[in-house]
Write a structure and sequence with these properties.
Blueprint: E1 6-10, H1 17-30, H2 33-38, E2 40-44, H3 50-59, E3 65-68, H4 85-90, E4 95-98, H5 101-106, H6 111-123, E5 127-132, H7 136-140, H8 144-155, H9 161-164, E6 168-171, H10 185-202, H11 205-210, E7 212-216, H12 224-228, E8 235-238, H13 245-252
Parallel strand pairs: 1-2, 1-8, 2-3, 3-4, 4-5, 5-6, 6-7, 7-8
The structure holds phosphoenolpyruvate.
Phosphoenolpyruvate (PEP) is lined by residues 10, 12, 172, 177-178, 216-219, 237-241.
């Protein structure tokens, strides 16, 4: 199956709502219909930017998709500081990142939390971008595949095939995030291929064939083409390089 690559920019805690408008405008000016025919482009701004991004995208009928960097596992109520799936759906978000390593590391999110958040995302029609990937110690011990697949199994527990068919998995080795140290294309393929094989075991081969698996970890215009050449890599989750609109556009144009 031909999978449309998904290039998604995770802005993390960068760019206020005015800067977000400027950034989306730069992307809108720089990208053409030809780009959007070949690649799906998404931005993942902080929550406080989403309304501004929505207004811009709706007003100018932009083809850029957007989503949130997290979603609450809860539907509503006394959960101070949390943002619900219903709120994100109301803003027409397409995506919700779930289980980013920074959420796992700094906010104690585990696989059960990710599973609850994946369920919450689907309750509101959001597509999860589920992040999985090993730390340096696990990689050095050669445990990257087992570790990543265990995260996948945990996050997908009880998720029916009708929902899992639309999920996006981001394989993000923690040691490569924000470090400038990128996985080799072969390293990325090893784990992305194993993720697809596990999806075939959990569901079926057809579903696995349709799921997009991104690589994330220090992706830049200079290394994206080699990673994208791997058969089981269908896009990139881009952090630092997504803050530079020109660089992000070059990443979107990885085939050029
Ligand atoms: C990320 O935030 O998911 C990420 C991959 O960051 P960076 O591209 O900066 O490594």
């Amino acid at each position: 199956m031909a999978r449309t690559p998904l290039m998604a920019g995770n802005w993390k805690m960068n760019l206020n709502h005015l800067e977000a408008i400027a950034q989306v405008q730069k992307l809108a000016f720089g990208l053409s219909d030809k780009d959007f025919d070949a690649v799906e482009v998404a931005v993942l701004p902080p929550f406080t930017d989403l309304r501004s991004v929505q207004t811009l995208v709706d007003g100018d009928k932009l083809k850029i998709k957007y989503g949130a960097q997290d979603v609450s596992a809860h539907d509503s109520g006394a959960y101070t500081g949390e943002i619900s799936g219903a709120m994100l759906a109301k803003l027409n978000c397409t995506y919700a990142v779930i289980g980013h390593s920074e959420r796992r590391q700094y906010h104690g999110e585990d696989d059960a939390t990710c599973n609850a958040k994946v369920k919450a995302a689907y309750r509101y029609g959001l597509t999860p971008i589920l992040c999985v990937g090993e730390g340096l110690d696990v990689r050095k011990a050669g445990g990257q595949v087992a570790h990543t697949l265990a995260q996948l199994d945990g996050a997908l527990a009880d998720i029916p095939a009708e929902q899992a068919a639309s999920i996006v998995i981001a394989y993000e080795p923690v040691w490569a995030i924000g470090t400038g140290e990128v996985a080799t294309p072969e390293d990325a393929q090893e784990v992305c291929g194993a993720i697809r094989a596990r999806l075939a075991e959990l569901y079926d081969a057809e579903l696995a064939d349709g799921v997009r698996i991104q690589y994330g970890g220090s992706v830049k215009s200079g290394n994206v083409a080699a990673i994208m050449a791997q058969p089981d890599v269908d896009g990139a989750l881009v952090g630092g390089a997504a803050l530079d609109a020109e660089e992000f556009i070059k990443i979107v144009r990885f085939r050029d």
